[in-house]
Amino acid sequence: MKTDKxxxxxxxxxxxxxxxxxxxxxxxxxxxxxxxxxxxxxxLSENELPVFEIKSELAHTLISTRQIIERNxxxxxxxxxxxxxxxxxxxxxxxxxxxxxxxxxVVDIHxxxxxxxxxxxxxxxxxxxxxxxxxxxxxxx
Length: 141
Known about the structure:
Distance between the termini: 5 Å
Radius of gyration: 14 Å
Number of helices: 3
Number of strands: 8
Largest sheet: 5 strands, antiparallel
Strand content: 25-35%
């Protein structure tokens, strides 16, 4: 079983290999693993590490080494990667006038769907590779 630290390191390496123009991302960033405020805000478990975040006026979304979490005002929704069955990122490539923010949908093992925010454009690759890499690492354990 991989540690949270190794999951974070492998995932960030994957993002960095694929990402383009990280400085142009408006709402997304690779999360700081030592950001105590972020860790407390999302109520991460002991040793669980933040990996990738999307922060807009409407919501704050975090991909951690164990789950996908989103805070929207006082509402919080979360899905542990162990219960993640499918992810739909949508088709926003090549769309004229595409919005800066969109949603990606996750389906849990019970068939329930949850929507989380994502930044479109070049920043989307960070989110896609963070979720897909963590899913693969969890499945390999």
